[in-house]
């Protein structure tokens, strides 16, 4: 497969960035090469330089020249060993990192808090992944490894070596002001296994992970940024809960641990003694008893939980004396260095301890690949290479897998449109339109209403007045956006609203925020927990509600007796059409867009068509849908994806063939008996003994078409008044256009012409419309319904397909249907909203070979049902064996199936679709500029809708340029290299 050069470059770059040596955590053992490096480097350092290796400074890229100058001064004067970056921009951060590295004699160890990715410190410029509370809901723990690996890739690209993650705090205090959503939850086993996978993703890809906040910050009601929290549990409790994840990850190779600022009397009963400054906790417990052999970082030493009770520099010296290796964010580097020296002089710290700690830091740097020489990543395309489509795909996958149906006592999920009522969404705390409402609109017609957190009785009553008993109501509760807690205000007015909705309609509550908010929702029977107001979480929630994705998340905490840990209702995907990014299904979105955009521009520049719509779907998800150009060359109305196009011969498969398949399923039609069994009028005629099977494969001998309209024109080529009227009157009742009515008597003449026509192509392949005229008539005779009503009743309406219809002007304004021609040979008018095909028009707009109109999305849904072997939304519309029968080649044919077109296998004939398509691909072309192709091998559907026949059907440049085939090829050319993409 050819790969577009920029994509190839990115793939190679990604491979090189990920080709990092796994980080080896145990610093108590060294190879001979490592020993030589460490000793040689230490011997070349002064005592002050060794102290400097133990200091990691705060660094920003948005605080201006004075801050930068201070950092540079301390790198040079105090020989600091590392930096911890906070806010700024990726470009400025990398630029400064490279400058700082050049100033340092020994390469700097660069760190970031990246619990939920670089977006934790660089929001809106880099990707913020779900917080750990949402990750705690995911059942497939391998996805946590994928997260760690991706964050590692991004960190390498940004010149960062250490991620202060994962958080191993077991959060069992709903009022925890600082951990809360940063924890994987309340269960020690869940926290441990997810922390392990996250750690391995980081360290196997060359980034040092750091477990925090030792010995466990989960059960506090005080934020250590502002005061010293006290943990009053005994040692047995600490061993069984708080310490459990740390002990497990020490056993499995965590590279570093961050010591928290907590007072824990059971471990050190000295008053106001933070755990980070406690030798009984850091050295005796962590190092000796638990056997930790990696690096120990302090938590930030600027935090009031530690500075409140100690003088300048004393905090840092006490931390070193307690057993820490690296002092994170000292308030004053000069004071810290002075105090450490004083402690050494006083014998409170051994100078050999300084050398030993500096040696551990150097060994860690060596294993990170920065022992001798720093890396200097390029600034070129930095943001693009951080925020790759694959990285966004991972975010989407994580949120989709985190979605948790806490309970569904009434069995309302997945949602479907109510038979009689409406679907209504009430957004509390965020106004629509937003990501959630827009995605919901893709699945159904929904009325969106908004409400405030402080909902008053007047606003509540006004909302309730818009609801009826047969409505389904989704109430979306959004968080307040708080950084760590993402509180969801559920006040009395909102609770009253929920209670009264539940009394009069079906209610589904969706929570975009902290799961502890569920404590107020015990009365709600159907609740979806989405964990965040992030746009991707909103998108995932909409998909979950309508069954586009499987839902199997589990609640990671207990919020109430009715919202307990591990609660979660599992649902299978309802096999509905979903919506996603190209990368989520294995397509390069940038390449796909670039190629189709270029083809559309070419088509319109060459005046091959005034406008078009293209759609690509894979694995049941629409990943590309775009309209181009205008309805006409006067450019007055832009083409839209919701436009209703004349689908021409696609009618043959998307209406007539699927209807016949249904009748075959029901045993009402046999493909191998003469059609006269169903159409008594054909007895004694040329077509009496035709059978459906060869007729559908265009092997029955019928001629291609009959120009029925020509016999109704006068010598000047004008419609005869004998047959047509401008008004519906008397026997003139067949609507050819909205201002042209044909005399019903002529229908008999048309059918007689068809029945008595000779079979000039007997035994040969000849594409023919006439067989589909007959097929539609058989559907009418057998079912008692015309093909349009039969298809609507059995497929379009139950599948929720609004636009697939015959005679669209009965449902839609004319402006929504692009015109197909300025007819100067029959109708003498612009054909718009009426079928372009002349024969179908003379049948009143309903025929088996033409007459269907629709949007790309609805057409894609029909073909997704076929790809799913007749199943859609959990309903079996057709039997799988019937779908397989109709979508395989007719015996001896190189191209045609039963009704469906397939890839041409005869190399001496022109291809009808992309050469990359599999031999099993099926679909159809349409005269007006239409194509739909579905490939079961790739689970790929590509649709092009155009009105290339406007203003004249004689303009076939659209076909000569092979626009449809080339759009189809673009989808295959955009397939990413081998990777598994599931539904």
UniProtKB/TrEMBL annotation:
<dbReference type="InterPro" id="IPR001466">
    <property type="entry name" value="Beta-lactam-related"/>
</dbReference>
<dbReference type="InterPro" id="IPR050226">
    <property type="entry name" value="NagZ_Beta-hexosaminidase"/>
</dbReference>
<dbReference type="InterPro" id="IPR012338">
    <property type="entry name" value="Beta-lactam/transpept-like"/>
</dbReference>
<feature type="signal peptide">
    <location>
        <begin position="1"/>
        <end position="19"/>
    </location>
</feature>
<protein>
    <recommendedName>
        <fullName>beta-N-acetylhexosaminidase</fullName>
        <ecNumber>3.2.1.52</ecNumber>
    </recommendedName>
</protein>
<dbReference type="Pfam" id="PF00144">
    <property type="entry name" value="Beta-lactamase"/>
</dbReference>
<comment type="similarity">
    <text>Belongs to the glycosyl hydrolase 3 family.</text>
</comment>
<keyword id="KW-0378">Hydrolase</keyword>
<dbReference type="InterPro" id="IPR036962">
    <property type="entry name" value="Glyco_hydro_3_N_sf"/>
</dbReference>
<feature type="domain" description="Glycoside hydrolase family 3 N-terminal">
    <location>
        <begin position="48"/>
        <end position="362"/>
    </location>
</feature>
<dbReference type="InterPro" id="IPR017853">
    <property type="entry name" value="GH"/>
</dbReference>
<dbReference type="Pfam" id="PF00933">
    <property type="entry name" value="Glyco_hydro_3"/>
</dbReference>
<dbReference type="InterPro" id="IPR001764">
    <property type="entry name" value="Glyco_hydro_3_N"/>
</dbReference>
<keyword id="KW-0732">Signal</keyword>
<dbReference type="InterPro" id="IPR036881">
    <property type="entry name" value="Glyco_hydro_3_C_sf"/>
</dbReference>
<feature type="domain" description="Beta-lactamase-related">
    <location>
        <begin position="596"/>
        <end position="952"/>
    </location>
</feature>
<keyword id="KW-0326">Glycosidase</keyword>
